[in-house]
Design a protein that fits this description.
The chain is mainly β. The protein has no helices and 11 strands. Strands 2, 4, 5, 6, 9, 10 and 11 form a 7-stranded mixed sheet that branches. A 4-stranded antiparallel sheet has the order 1-3-8-7, with no helix packed on it. The radius of gyration is 13 Å and the shape is globular.
Length: 121
């Protein structure tokens, strides 16, 4: 069964850090760019980051630039999102995803189940 599984979410104080992981099962992540997305209650889902299939290229939403870093380890079939200097407005369910046909982060059609990140004192 093909799956993406996120982990690493939790409750953290403002200014703190979390590292999210995205694990693939049933297939290799290596050919795919992987995006991180988030959705806060009452808000539309937004793209957070995208890491290229090689890991050499990344891009980020303006709201997280300089605070979040996406990376990958294709040997482990894993993608990561390191989140530093977290703010309450980062609170959301975070998802990893890709578009299976094109292997890009645009218009993803294959999603994990999400992991909750809550930033609160």
């Amino acid at each position: 069964q093909l799956q993406l599984v996120e982990s690493g979410g939790g409750l953290v104080q403002p200014g703190g850090s979390l590292r999210l992981s995205c694990a693939a099962s049933g297939f290799s992540l290596a050919p795919f760019a992987i995006g991180w997305f988030r959705q806060a209650p009452g808000k539309e889902r937004e793209g957070v980051s995208c890491v290229s299939f090689s890991g050499r290229s990344t891009n980020y939403a303006d709201s997280v630039k300089g605070r979040f870093t996406s990376s990958r380890d294709n040997a482990k079939n894993m993608v990561y999102l390191q989140m530093n200097s977290l703010k309450p407005e980062d609170t959301a369910v975070y998802y990893c995803a890709t578009e299976l046909a094109s292997g890009t982060c645009s218009n993803p059609n294959f999603w994990g189940q999400g992991t909750q990140v809550t930033v609160s004192s």
